Amino acid sequence: MNIYExxxxxxxxxxxEETIYxxxxxxxxxRVNNSIYGGFGAYDPYPTVSSKAAALxxxxxxxxxxxxxxxxxxFLSALYLLIGNFYTFDVTDANxxxxxxxxxxxxxxxxxxxxxxxxxHISLNYDNMASTLDSGEFSYSQALVFTxxxxxxx
Length: 154
What we know:
- The protein has helices spanning 3-15, 26-37, 49-61, 70-84, 94-105, 111-119, 126-135, and strands at 87-89, 122-124.
- The chain is mostly helical.
- Helices cover 55% and strands 4% of the residues.
- It is built from seven helices and two strands.
- It has a single domain, classed as Four Helix Bundle (Hemerythrin (Met), subunit A) (Up-down Bundle), CATH 1.20.120.1870.
- A two-stranded antiparallel sheet has the order 1-2.
- It comes from Companilactobacillus tucceti DSM 20183.
- Residues 43-82 form the Fido domain.
- This is Fido domain-containing protein.
- Pfam families: Fic.
């Protein structure tokens, strides 16, 4: 099971919706993932962690890579990328996160808007960074706990 399958399953649990989950377009998802990290020579279209997270969020939200939960998996994927790079994200309002994904899916906002939103809500997690350097083991220390996830409108 790859990380996107895990995140898609988490999106199902987060919002308690009973339907079919799973990846339906693995090649498309691979292309998106490669586009986030791929560049041309010295050119990197997404040079910062927040720009990579925003592009990932936007590209997953605007496509149908999963059977269900595309918009939810989009923001969970961005959060996973941020946390994996020692950032803490301070938004816990699931409705707000879903609304941003919905606006992206409807092309009312772009990846630049999402990047600005991300940048206004992240900070480096120096404790996790220091712990990783000391122990040599990484911990996803930020729990992904959202308020009002049961009230999300599907």
